[in-house]
TrEMBL record:
Residues 49-89 form the HTH cro/C1-type domain. This is Transcriptional regulator with XRE-family HTH domain. Pfam families: DUF5753 (PF19054), HTH_31 (PF13560). One of its GO terms (molecular function) is DNA binding. InterPro entries: Cro/C1-type_HTH (IPR001387), DUF5753 (IPR043917), Lambda_DNA-bd_dom_sf (IPR010982).
Length: 314
């Protein structure tokens, strides 16, 4: 497998965008203060508890009385601003007559996961949306993606990613660009770690032919895709131009499957940052969209040959 052997500065040695102190020191300062905004993971847990309570027709006051807390704490829990213990969560579910044991236990695991992930080192120095993407990937059991213009972030080479980050308007400061590269490399470890999630990616031919960074960078990127596709838990399928119209054209889509289907998450890129969707109708829509694309895409072996043929043309 192709790996990056360059000299990107590590997080601990990299200055903040202001250049006044090491990022590790900035992280320690942030960690000592209270969290002022919840992560997407925490917001999702609160959303699920709110949905459960409303579906049962139980008032916030009733749940507060059951748990022995103030009414305001229930509001904060449902907004993801305040933690809830797995034990109290199970009491909440019981009071709301939620009989789906698998769903409740999956929520209890979410409530128990208070360990700060590696992405927290970047809080305050990178946009929160980038951290939320890493957190979503870390908790996913399976990842299904569809890209029509860009190579998936988890599969980009450093030089390819550098070109992408260099094409931002307004331009990123050099230090933030390097930070994003280091962060992306750390994200990519999820595919080479012990017990990695299953990854199933559909890439349109247009994305494969984009020469971001020039011919040599594009060729190295295609070779990296071929190498990654040979991992047992990674499946890549190409959607040729000849396939014609397809749903979600031009859209970047990541579908993160959770331990139970109710906790699946869709992440879509936009000009203002990532959007996270998890309504039942939304999840069904994007599952259907991915199923449609899979019917159109080439099989894995044919896809690998297709990528190799494009690489030979460069």
């Amino acid at each position: 497998m192709a790996t990056y052997t360059g000299t990107l500065t590590t997080f601990e040695g990299m200055p903040t965008p202001s250049g006044r102190e090491p990022l590790a020191a900035a992280y320690k300062k942030e960690a000592m203060g209270p969290r002022t905004s919840p992560t997407e993971h925490q917001r999702r847990l609160g959303h699920e508890l709110n949905k459960m309570r409303l579906a049962a027709g139980v008032s916030a006051e009733a749940v507060a009385s059951l748990l022995g807390v103030d009414r305001s704490k229930i509001s904060n829990i449902e907004r993801g601003m305040r933690a809830i213990s797995p034990e109290r969560l199970r009491s909440w579910a019981c009071h709301c007559a939620c009989s789906d044991a698998s769903y409740v236990e999956a929520l209890a695991k979410m409530a128990q996961s208070r360990t700060r992930g590696w992405w927290e080192r970047y809080r305050g120095v990178l946009p929160g949306g980038l951290l939320d993407i890493a957190e979503m990937e870390a908790y996913a059991m399976r990842l299904r993606t569809a890209h029509s213009v860009h190579i998936p972030g988890l599969l980009q080479t450093v030089d390819h990613a550098r070109t992408i980050f260099g094409a931002v308007v307004p331009p990123l400061p050099e230090q933030e660009l390097e930070l994003r590269l280091v962060h992306r490399l750390e994200r990519q470890r999820i595919l080479t770690q012990e017990d990695p999630p299953e990854y199933y990616g559909i890439i349109h031919e247009a994305a494969l032919r984009m020469q971001f960074g020039g011919r040599s960078v594009a060729r190295a990127q295609l070779e990296h895709l071929i190498n990654m596709s040979e991992l047992s838990h990674v499946t890549l399928r190409v959607l040729p131009v000849a396939s014609g119209a397809f749903p979600g054209a031009g859209q970047t889509l990541v579908y993160a499957e959770a331990e139970v289907a109710q906790l699946d998450t869709v992440q879509i890129d936009s000009t203002h940052g990532p959007d996270f969707l998890y309504g039942d109708t939304q999840l069904a829509k994007y599952r259907g969209q991915l199923d449609w694309l899979e019917r159109l895409a080439l099989e894995p072996d044919d896809s690998r040959k297709f990528i190799h043929d494009i690489s030979r043309q460069l």
